[in-house]
Amino acid sequence: MLTIDIGNSRIKWALFKHGVIREHGVFEYRLDSLQADFKNANLPVASERVEISCVAGQGFKKRFSGLLNSYGYTNFRFAETMAKQCNVINSYKVPENMGVDRWLAMVEAFRVSGANEGEVVCVIDCGTAITLDVISDSGQHLGGLIMPGYRTMINSLVTGAENIEYSEKNHSNDDVTGLASSTQDSISKGCSQVIAGGLSAIIDSHLKCASMKIHCIVTGGDGGWVSSAITYENSHNPFLVLQGLYTASTEIKK
């Protein structure tokens, strides 16, 4: 099975065989060069079917469907956010108002956590937006938060303030601690510390104070450095949404 996770600027994919990822990749894309970007990515031909997570609108889905058909992918499905799936219960009154990538991340996080009694699952997805969701040991989604992602935060600052120079090519999250001695590093470290400190404080205030055991999983494009920067013990899984696609589709197939 080929799984595809379409974000706002990147497309991630993974090829599963017998439940295990055998190949995977990621590529940047733009709307005006989507066909060329897709062609250059050299995705494997799926022998069975293709499962897709897409947060874009129906117009993009229609365009992407045509692209898949033109490359010989005929058996594909766009995943949807459900009221209940794989023992996870959505707290939204209108489930489809929740981003499907966020939902799939929760489905997979709950599965891998083992649903231990007395332990809540905290899922942090770090992309264009950062989402934090909490699931009880019974699978009930207790709610979540949405905040600007790292690059969204920087772009907002650079766009909204005059005379601030920032180069995306020169940024680094290797060391997000301490103070900086240049505008470039001040922006990078400042936004990184706001995110890491904010997430750590949220976990402290909403979960640790309630004396709950927490299984925390971090994913998303910025998940690597965020996982290292937050103060609470966690695991980093860059394939959480793709694995959630596989898990959810397996239940549907049954």
Structural features, described:
There is one protein chain. The chain is an alpha/beta fold and 254 residues long. The protein folds into two domains: 2-78, ATPase, nucleotide binding domain (Nucleotidyltransferase, domain 5), CATH 3.30.420; 84-150 and 181-239, Nucleotidyltransferase, domain 5, CATH 3.30.420.40. The protein is 36% helix and 26% strand. It is built from seven helices and twelve strands. Helix 3 (100-113) packs across helix 7. It is globular. It catalyses: (R)-pantothenate + ATP = (R)-4'-phosphopantothenate + ADP + H(+). This is Type III pantothenate kinase.
Give me the CATH architecture of the largest domain, please.
2-Layer Sandwich
Tell me the domain tally. 2
In the CATH scheme, what's the topology name of the largest domain?
Nucleotidyltransferase, domain 5
The largest sheet, given as strand count, sense and whether it forms a barrel, is:
5 strands, mixed
Compressed to H and E, one letter per element, the order equals EEEHEHEEEHEEEHHEHEH
Structural class: alpha/beta
Mean pLDDT: 90
Radius of gyration: 19 Å
Q: Please identify which CATH superfamily of the largest domain we are dealing with.
A: ATPase, nucleotide binding domain
Q: Order of strands side by side in the largest beta sheet? A: 3-2-1-4-5
Terminus-to-terminus distance: 15 Å
Pathway: Cofactor biosynthesis; coenzyme A biosynthesis; CoA from (R)-pantothenate: step 1/5
GO cellular component, one term: cytoplasm
Family: Belongs to the type III pantothenate kinase family.
Protein name: Type III pantothenate kinase
